[in-house]
Amino acid sequence: MMDKLRKEYLFFKQQEPNMKILLLTNMLYALVLPVVEIFVGAYIMRNTSDPVMVAFYQLAMYAGIVATSFVNGFLLKKYNVKILYSAGILVSGIAMFGMMTIKSLGFIELGLAGFLMGAASGFFWTNRYLLALYNTNDDNRNYFFGLESFFFSITSIGVPLAIGAFISQIGGKEILGFMFNISDSYRMVTMGVVVITIIACLVLWRGNFNNPKETNFLYFRFNILWKKMLWLAALKGMVQGFLVTAPAILVLKLVGDEGALGLIQGISGALTAILVYILGRIAHPKDRLKIFVGGLILFFIGTLWNGILFSVVGVIIFVLCKVVFQPLFDLAYFPIMMRTIDVVAKIEHRNEYAYILSHEFGLFLGRAFGLLLFIFLSYSISQDFALKYALIIVAGLQLIAYPLAKNIINQTNIIEHENDK
């Protein structure tokens, strides 16, 4: 076992310096992401007891991502990409701390907090895509995203377990003469998040990253191949919003508390992390479509069980399927997206950031549709109906992503083959 681990470590050491630094930075941020994705939603749910408020917060957050992605394009003309990436990492922790200090969580407060959190995420994700695009190639992207997903999967197990245990142990107890309530526990967790983001920025600063040479980034007309990629982004975004909010809502509504939430995700997360790393290590670009469709089918099955049972067992099955689906889907999706950007940017002779920005708009349209569907079903019928069937609807629609991804891959193959002649 030690020999195998040493072999994998040596393989990692062989990668390009910038790629290694980017992976190390993202591994540290992996400790923060579960707090952003899960416990922020759980915090809002606990303080409002309203799933619609969670969905509204998420919608405001996605609007913030799009807004700062647009602003980021202008900032890239003046500032190095690692400065903007570091700002996104730092602000995400600070924005969380600010939200935890809000005493009254109404629509205005949640909208502002969500937008600010999205603003931080916008700087983080768009610059992350740009750095990954420039410091990887099609041959090593499976490994890059496989290793990254491995750590994201591991932290999605360990962080919720640790934080859930911390909150349940310290909440409502007196320590050193101070009575800690649940909100105090969340604030302590957020302070830890801020410390980790600072360390991640220090690691990132060791890299030597370049900005796009072409400064123009705002376009409204694109090659048909990129238009198809935007539809694929919308399908991904449609489900993505639910992946952030639904587990927290369902677990707190049907199962119990944050500790249970972490335990449920931990059941399948460890095996998923190993599976994703192995796939990223050994899978070839031609295998991406198989990984892609496997994740789609698994997620659809999970939503069906949740809708049919709508009980503790149904939630457990859904969360298990979700934990496996997300890294599998991303392992295939991001290399497909980046390869498409490589091809289309050469055809249209444009700044790669133009495609990253438009990709965020595609994701937002999907996210907004999914969350607005949930809000509409909650108000027009009932929250239970929305929790049962909105997931099934978006998971069913997302199955369209398979033939679309297949067509995109085939087209990029044809274009690259013609360019090689």
TrEMBL record:
Protein name: Major facilitator superfamily (MFS) profile domain-containing protein
Record-linked Pfam families: MFS_1 (PF07690)
Lineage: Bacteria, Pseudomonadati, Bacteroidota, Bacteroidia, Bacteroidales
Highest taxon above the source species: Bacteria
InterPro entries tied to this protein: MFS (IPR011701), MFS_trans_sf (IPR036259)
Keyword annotations of the record: Membrane, Transmembrane, Transmembrane helix
Record field: transmembrane: 21-44, 56-76, 83-102, 108-131, 143-168, 188-209, 230-254, 260-280, 292-325, 361-381, 387-405
GO molecular function: transmembrane transporter activity
